[in-house]
Amino acid sequence: MTSLCEAAVEVLTTADPARKTALTLEHARRWQAGEITEIGRAAPPDRPARPHKPEILPPNKMPRRGTGADAGKIALFHALAHIEFNAIDLGWDIIARFADPALPKAFYDDWVQVAKDEAEHFEALEHLLNRLGSHYGALPAHDGLWQAAEKTAASLAHRLAIVPMTLEARALDTAPHSIAKLAGSADAETLRELTKIVEEEVDHVAAGTRWFLHLCAQDGTDPASRYQAYVRDYFPYGLKKPFNYEGRDRTGLPRAFYEVLGN
């Protein structure tokens, strides 16, 4: 019988995007149906398997987004698809890398659901790209999100604070503006899919916050101070404002955690 960690590593070692999403949806279905019951142990790779495309460039070498309505949409959807593709692996990596008998089943339930959501988001964005005559891999991308995963590989608390509670929360700050800019030129299906993605990202930030608070309660540490210390280590210049307070409030992430870090 495949354990959950073995299922996670199978996804992490699969490069092809279509196969990675299909495995994610199948393993999530099996876990949620009770067909996978054992957490198990399996060592995740330092880096997930990746397709030959997109070309990975340093953030400062990324080309400017194309001009024109369709070119701008393709660039936006491709950037979002790359984030979601990485996020599939982040969901599985947190399961395999930090598996611990002390963690309740609800922890694994949350991150399986996150991985499933991210796979569905990737598929939706690939569909939007296809409608515009493009596909994932057609444009270069950067590796910033996985670099954050590598830097937090030794600590679950660091991973939760930096990836879902900071980087994914940042997406809640920027997404409403991006959707508003598209409102005049995008069709109803596009706006519906993008809005759904943002709504589900709220749940992902909430999962990160919930389990960070759980760890702090176990350790008897002050969660706000701990979060701020971690973020200052990774982002010495602070967090970029403006914050989407309404979206962040829905995640359960207290303003007192991040407000003092804004610049």
Unreliable sequence segments = none
Class from secondary-structure proportions: mainly alpha
Mean pLDDT: 94
Rg over CA atoms, rounded to whole Å, is 18 Å
How helix-rich are the residues, as a percent range?
Answer: 55-70%
Would you kindly provide a written description of the structure presented here, covering whatever features stand out?
This protein has 263 residues and is mostly helical. It has one domain (74-261): Ferritin (Up-down Bundle), CATH 1.20.1260. Helices cover 64% and strands 0% of the residues. The chain contains ten helices and no strands. The chain has helices spanning 4-12, 17-32, 69-97, 105-131, 144-151, 156-182, 188-219, 223-234, 245-249, 255-258. It is globular, with a radius of gyration of 18 Å. 39% of the residues are buried. The mean pLDDT is 94.
Quick rundown:
By secondary structure, the chain is an all-alpha fold.
Q: Which key terms come to mind for this protein?
A:
single chain, 263 residues, mainly alpha, Ferritin, 10 helices, 0% strand, globular
Strand and helix map with partners:
Layout: H1 4-12, H2 17-32, H3 69-97, H4 105-131, H5 144-151, H6 156-182, H7 188-219, H8 223-234, H9 245-249, H10 255-258
